[in-house]
Specification:
Distance between the termini: 92 Å
Radius of gyration: 38 Å
Structural class: mainly alpha
Shape: globular
Largest sheet: 2 strands, antiparallel
Number of strands: 4
Strand order of the largest sheet: 1-2
Amino acid sequence: MENINTCAMAYPRMTMRWSFLFGVSRTLTRQKNHIWLRYFSANAISHISSNKKEFVRKLSSKLNDPDVFGTLSLHGSRGSQSLDSINNQELPVDEGDVEEEKHLSFQPADRKSVEEFEKEISQLIEKRKLKDALFCLEVTMKEDRIQPSIGVFSLLIGACGREGYSKKAFSLFNQMKKKGFDPKDCHYTALFNSCANSPWKVDGLQRAKILRQQLNDRNVLLNRAQYHAMIKAFGHCGEINTALQIVDEMVSNNLVVTTESFSFLLQACISLPEEGFARAVLVWMKLRNMRVTPSIFSYNLMLRTVRDCDAKDVNGQQNPIESVLLLEEKPDLQANSMLNQSILSTSELMIVTDQLTVRPNLLAEKIKSSNIMALTGLEKTENRLALLGGIEGFLEEMNKDHVRPDIKTFSLLLETIASNPKEEKVLMEQMKACGVIPDISFLNMFIKKRQFRQDYSGAQEILSYFQDYQLFPDIMTFGVLALGCRTLPEADSLMSDMENAGFRVNIEIFGCLLKNAIVRRNCFYIVDLLKRAVKMNLALDEKAVKLLDKFKRETSEAIAKHDRGLKVQKVYGERGFRESFKIFCLEYKPHMQKLELALEPHPWQQYRYNLSKERASDPPCPPLSKKTVQNKK
């Protein structure tokens, strides 16, 4: 009896133990077979479906056979169910099994899916955090063993293209193809954008040529967006002829050439500083001939060519502007003609005729050039603007095309007009008539223009516009005001105003003050600036260091020549200057040892986290354009 009771007591414990072990075994078996189940399930189901009819037919033939076992489910009285419904039916899940899988699963509970990674990368790109987005793909997803989708590659290739990170864009494109994804239209567009935005024109042009050749070899049909990206890439890299060929290719492929297409061509002209304006005139003529209406971007780009580009002959041929004006067909001037006394001089840009003086407008649909004899002086921006009708003529053509000028238009006009109060007054009157309100950038440019012509009192007058339009100075305002600080008291007053406004001196403003001090050979001014730089922990850039070294070296050589009796400027023989220069030499080395040197970073360094091998193969960093960095307290 005791044995029976002992067995009865042990039975529940054994049952619980075997139940637990059976549950663990069932869970582990389910996880172990999870992979091959997914692989063979499709084949098994398809095989069953194909033989289902034959299988049922055989069983039905033996329904009435008493020796056959297991045919009861085929009777209609018990209900029948097809294999398709069984396959699609979701089996009931036991709550205990769910809990066991949750605790016994070997997958990390916090592992993200590829969709979640794609969403995270998209958010990082929107915040312009390309470095973190690349880290998410190349490190985090690899650690979690998540295979990237084509959406992840599309996001990152597009972001690298917009930032000009051409090397990484092409690398991601090759990785995407190795993983079996077929390239889409957006990928080719992004690759051409990366070539266009690359800091190195040679590298970008080489990549663009290879990519275009591959597309041609594969007979890939391109859309308008891809053609525009190609025009942008070759145009920014200086291949204007290739860009024009691409436009002709668009026409041959029955793609409509739009205003945007010509805007990319005008951007290509801007990349040619020697002949860009002449090329832009030809592009504009083609725009008019194709009956394409220009937009505000087209007009602003034309102003950029006026500001940034010259009008020299193209490939040693005749000046294209003269070809547009048909000057080669004009008859020779007669000796007794009034025109012999004055040939067209674009320093005044007056077209001398028998009775009146006219100005051509190369933007118009019909150019009046019958009385033009010659062109000179196109190296000046105001003369190139005069060929487009001047301020009034330019705005008049915009009005004919129903295009309203914006603040960017007037900012570009301000940079291209002659530097005199008369032209500036006309510009402000036209600006008021068009209902355009100046912004802080326009007023800063206005101050800069007057500073460059040494109209320091006129530059101070612009400050009254800040109150009229309720604008507040920014760091750029103090930067352009620094151009007029000729003496140490003026510089001291400027830096005090900056401190009161909540700004601190940056390297750009320091460079302006230092240049003014060196030009005027004011050694006490220079020493004071060095002391302030040490006090503010300001890191000097390479340009400032070279400026100081050049001043020290050339001044020492000039004083030595004066002592040997050679002819130099009188200032090098003055006692006061020589004593101040000695003080500068004594203070120069100790202060330079305390200052740090801020080297120009590699353009792609901001997107890297640890790519030493890639960095070694990158092209050297060229001198980039100086950017003003706003440093607030």
